[in-house]
Amino acid sequence: MNSPFKSGSLGSREPFSAFICDEAALDVLRPVVIEMGWQPEKCNKGGLRNAIQSLSISASPAILMVDLSESGDPLNDINALAEVCEPGTVVIAVGQVNDVRLYRDLLASGIHDYLLKPLSASQLRDSLTQAQSVFAAPRGDGAEGEHEHVSTAVVGTRGGVGASTLATSLAWLFAAEHNRSTALLDLDVHFGTGALSLDLEPGRGLTDAIENPSRIDGLFIERAMIRANDNLAIMSAEAPINSPLMTDGTAFLQLQEEFAQAFDTTVVDLPRNMLINFPHLLTDVNVVTLVTELTLASARDTIRLLSWLKQNAPAAHPLIVCNKMQSGAAEISKADFEASIERKINYQITFDQKAAANAAKLGQTFIEANKSSKTVNPIREIASMIAGVAEDDGASLEEAGQKGSMLGNFDFKSLLGGAKKSKPAEAEPAE
Description:
Helix content: 40-55%
Structural class: alpha/beta
Strand order of the largest sheet: 8-9-7-10-6-11-12-13
Mean pLDDT: 81
Largest sheet: 8 strands, mixed
CATH architecture of the largest domain: 3-Layer(aba) Sandwich
Strand content: 15-25%
Number of strands: 13
């Protein structure tokens, strides 16, 4: 349906009008309306049908609040309202029915928001402020199509390489320094540390989503995500370790779809087992950030993951980040590692135990706790690069000759032998 709602500008119209069924709701609404600088006389007694009757003979306001409480067929009545509203009217519906399907259908019809009774002043204030912002920021035709969402999945090639630390730091950077609304999805359902790194309780959002995928919509996202700050929200879980993960992955896909609508950026902390079990998680991911270290096992699994990505997620651009770099302490050399994976390491992050301990002590992400440390400079560079990635522009991520290698293309015995030769004699275990 081509809705007339939310498509125009304020112009010379009245800023606000409301049609509310009961006095109790009007008593809560009028002080907020006065606070917004509007006339309380515009708060009329009567519901949706009264609004339709009134607007059929008078001009529509910029923001219209209508009560659905006495409507037997809200969706049909909303369609009738659309026929008498002028283009650009922002409509806020009020009702008593707490039904996600109704909420979804109302939003699909062009409604800006749906508020449940009993109304509260803060609830009304927030909704009206958001409605007012539609006119405060001019939008060109097709603005929704210009919304450019960027998604990155952060995958550790081995346990303990620091993938979760990098994921939370990137999410914080997107939100705080790039001013992008950001969703952090921690898919380690039983042992995730995303909320812990932000000093937050994980809540039940992710668990509820897995158990009831049909509930996932814009309203669910708004209520289930835990806010770290104005621009950053997280969805994670601490599921009981005696409860195995029972899902076909539909919930994860739906969450990503909703994030793409509600946020500028999504960061998915993606454990390797989840990648294997639910390959569709990478369908709409722009950049896969592979976090690795200079070890034989990590080199092997980087090769395997690059090969897997090439086969299963060809549209996602892999980014190799080597974490915990220590001078002279690597199991294999950087040159040997790059030779084995047949591509360059894109970014290197120095090992800094003191910085990691400082972050844990403060209950902050690694980068927030160590903003002035040189250790975090590569993380800033990674965030800047990912934030600038367009949907169809990944060429800048690809180095000449960088291609995934099949496991059988490299002799790991020779690599191990070469690594040993490069080590000083004193690095061998003492007898």
